[in-house]
Write a structure and sequence with these properties.
With about 200 residues, this protein is an alpha+beta fold. It has a single domain, classed as Metal Binding Protein, Guanine Nucleotide Exchange Factor, Chain A, CATH 2.170.150.20. It contains four helices and nine strands; from the N terminus they run αααβββββββββα. The chain has a six-stranded antiparallel beta sheet with strand order 3-4-8-7-6-5. It has a three-stranded antiparallel beta sheet with strand order 2-1-9. β3 and β4 form a beta hairpin. The chain binds zinc ion (ZN). Zinc ion binds next to loops.
């Protein structure tokens, strides 16, 4: 019985990987400290296997060298956003965050998701019914881990965000299951001030 149990545990853990589930933000006091997003030593592999989806970067407006990405991001942020990894469920910055505000791409600070569309999916990852702007979130079919899923990424910089599923009521939207490590958060008041300062246009 050991093998089936182990296999079942593996399947459950894999399914848990999201299957039921610039303007520098200097004023973002709510941005999680890098340390809060770090895996413990030797734990990176437990943060999820890379999906290896090929993301078309030719149209991405933000292009950085690998060294620049590594300098900009924490090891976990780099693993998730640039290597298509998955952070642990229930041990990430935003899965249980209920504050009013906007979630930005960690790679280029494009506003991607609004807290008004965030909901508790029970997966342990932040989940949203829809992006702020559909064109900012690209979708690629992902055949990794023996599953067929739809990977989602930021079209502005190519950073991996998570996956999207159609298992919520259609009138509500879709289930965008997003890694906290791919996001930064800004409160509504700071976001409104940021929009006003940028004339409402994000370049
Ligand atoms: Zn981005």
């Amino acid at each position: 019985m050991k093998a089936p149990i182990c296999a079942a545990a593996l399947i459950v853990s894999v399914l848990a990987a999201c299957v039921p589930a610039s303007a520098v933000m200097k004023d973002n006091a709510n941005a999680p400290a890098k340390d809060a997003l770090e895996c413990k030593p030797g734990e990176i592999s437990a943060c999820g296997l890379p999906s290896n989806v090929v993301i078309d970067m030719s149209k991405a407006k933000v292009q950085r060298t690998d060294a620049e990405w590594r300098a900009r991001l924490s090891p976990l942020q780099y693993h998730v956003a640039r290597e298509q990894g998955t952070e642990p469920p229930f041990r990430n910055a935003f899965w249980d965050k209920h504050d009013d505000g906007v979630y930005f791409c960690v790679g280029c600070e494009t506003p991607l998701f609004d807290s008004t569309t965030k909901f508790d999916s029970g997966t342990g990852w932040p989940s949203f019914y829809q992006p702020i702007e559909r064109s900012f979130v690209g979708v690629e079919r992902d055949y990794s881990l023996g599953m067929i899923r739809d990977e989602v990424h930021c079209t502005v910089c190519g950073s991996h965000l998570g996956h999207v599923f159609d298992d919520v009521p259609r009138k509500k939207g879709r289930r965008y299951c997003i890694n906290s490590a791919s996001l930064r958060f800004m409160t509504r008041a700071n976001y409104d001030a940021w929009v006003a300062a940028n004339d409402g246009v994000k370049e």
